User: Fold this.
Amino acid sequence: MLNAPEAAVQQQHLMVDVDLAEAGSEAVRAEMFSLARAVMALADELGRPSPAVKAVLDRARFVLGQQDCVPSGDSPLAPWQLRRVLAHVERHIDRAITIPELARQANLSTSYFSRAFRQSQGVTAGAYVRNRRIEHAKQMLRDSSTSLAQISGACGFSDQAHFTRVFSALVGLPPHRWRRSGRGAHLS
Assistant:
């Protein structure tokens, strides 16, 4: 038997399960991110949720671009630390972000933060930042006609060549070809 918060999370599952790449408008995307954040906040309230609710939380993490998250309770980072670090990455995606800077957000030493982040996210902090930059670039490529040079700057890459190398390595296509292929509709 599910308690009221778990039932509410399960009820919202269909809304969270919408694919953002297919979600037409910015308003729909904003609503999806808002819903996913609400589900994540509810997770903090639940403590140790049931397996069904964990599945919904994993989907919310996916929607927020946190695919490799380990369910809360298994993380060496407190939920507030992880939220603060991830929010900092999103706010400053357009500039260089250092590991010591992220460690300060969590009030931890750089070495402890690096280990704890990798354990809780399944990837290093540097890889997480790089993945978020690429997801941000994909969104810009998909939703605008902004030049690659401007996108590379907006996503925190040092120059267009660096952006193209990283994008190609992670996505399998250079950004201009990914964009031309239908703005990534079937490749993302």
Remarks:
- Residues 51 and 94 are 37 Å apart (CA to CA).
- The chain has eleven helices and no strands.
- The longest helix spans residues 26-46.
